[in-house]
Each structure stands twice: as structure tokens, then as C-alpha cells.
Amino acid sequence: MRNWIIIILLLVVGTAGAETEPQTALIHIGPDDFKTETLGRETVEGHAYLIVQAEARTGRIANSLGYCRIRAWYDMQDRVTRKVLLLDQDDVILTTIRFSAFSLTEGKPRAGRIEVTDHSSGQTTVFQLDEFTNPVNPLTLI
Fold first, then answer.
1. Sheet architecture: strand order including 123-128
2. Could you tell me the CATH number of the domain that includes residue 97?
3. What percent of the chain has pLDDT above 70?
4. Nearest by Cα to 57 from 38, 35, 26, 89
5. Residue 126 has pLDDT above 50, yes or no
6. Does the pLDDT value for residue 140 go beyond 90?
7. Per-residue pLDDT tens over the stretch 91-114
């Protein structure tokens, strides 16, 4: 389970400050910068989900990212991440990321559609990846 949390973190996190800070001020953020925990299980429309959360260990990390928690819904039957929430310190949802239109590529599930909703602006952006020869696999993106 820790491996897929690490991949989700790398998918969502990357290198903090890339857009706002000078190149020398970039900080590397990795899986050790987060405390992870399993929050429980949930069944939605017949699918069993494992809900996990990763929380930034320091305020510096949270400030660099603009959020302090990542909460993910992992579909235990299909073995894919379906939804990721980025939350602030008060558990307010900042961004929702949904993965769908999965297909198998080399035996691995790959998302053909990613929907990102910015809750502060209300804007939703959809990335349709079906036409690419190597669609995104949210579990093994890196």
C-alpha cells in the first residue's frame, strides 16, 4: 500500500515551488515528508474503497505545496486510485482529482481520463488521454 501512496504523492506533489520560486529555492518533497494512515473503507456503487491519507510533516512542506493533506480512494477490486482530494489544515477541499476510463496496457490499469476540479475557482479541467499510446497509470506514473 505504501508504494501506491508514494506514487500518488509524486504525481500530485512533484517539486514544490516550481512556478513561484527561483530555481535555487526549489525544495524536493518526497514520501518521507508525509505521515500516512489508513482512514477506513467505504463502499460506493458496489465498489469497495480503501481510504488513505498523507499529511505533510511540517508547515514548510504544506506552505510550499499550498495544501497539507492528500486523501485518496483506492478501488480494492479494480486496484486503481479513483479519487484524490487535496485539503488544507481545516480539511477544506482545495482540489479534487478523479481518474476514470481505465484500460489495461501491458497488464496494468491506466486512466484514460483525468478530471481536476479547483474548488476555489469552481473550474474543472478534463484531460482526455485515450488518444495517447501510453495513457497515465496513477499507480505507476513515475
1. 34-44, 47-56, 69-75, 80-87, 93-105, 108-118, 123-128
2. 2.50.20.10
3. 73
4. 35
5. yes
6. no
7. 899 999 999 988 887 888 888 899
In a domain, 141, yes or no: no
Rounded to whole angstroms, how far apart are CA atoms 20 and 11? 19
Find the largest Cα–Cα distance for the chain: 49
CA distances from 51 to 48, 74, 134 (A): 10, 6, 27
User: 68: which residues sit within 8 A by CB, 6+ positions away?
Assistant: 55, 56, 61, 62, 87, 88, 89
Residue 60's CB: how many other CB atoms inside 10 A? 13
The parent domain of residue 53 ranges over 2-128
The owner of cell 499507480 is 139
pLDDT in tens, 16-47: 444 554 444 667 888 888 899 999 999 988 88
Domain count for the chain? 1
